[in-house]
Amino acid sequence: MGKQHSPAFLNLVQDAKTRIRETTVDAVKAKIDAGESFTLIDVREDSEWDAGHIPGAIHLGKGIIERDIEVKIPDLSTPIVLYCGGGFRSALAADALQKMGYTNVVSMDGGWREWTQKGLPIVKG
Questions:
Q1: Catalytic residue numbers?
Q2: 59-109 pLDDT per residue, tens
Q3: Where are the alpha helices (DSSP H) in 18-124?
């Protein structure tokens, strides 16, 4: 199981989840397999990214995504799937991106943890 989170953090995440859309690991894998066009963004910390990530993902950590997203993805209607370790930080990032005007953002519930538990493809290092 994942890290123990504080009640205030969990409340913040639950609040964000009332405003965002979520998707599943299986749905994201199906989109990849079908060749659908979308941008997959890993919002985890640098050390987590360096240890492994989903093939085709780009890295914009939770600490910098709001600062750097407009340079990487200037089109506010670009389909974006965000993931983190379990789906909490990606929910917060999705909420922030929507507030910035991005209209097609979803958070992958289950995140990296569920992706790897299912034995799906990863890139090491």
A1: 84
A2: 999 999 999 999 999 999 999 999 999 999 999 999 999 999 999 999 999
A3: 25-33, 46-51, 65-72, 88-99, 111-117
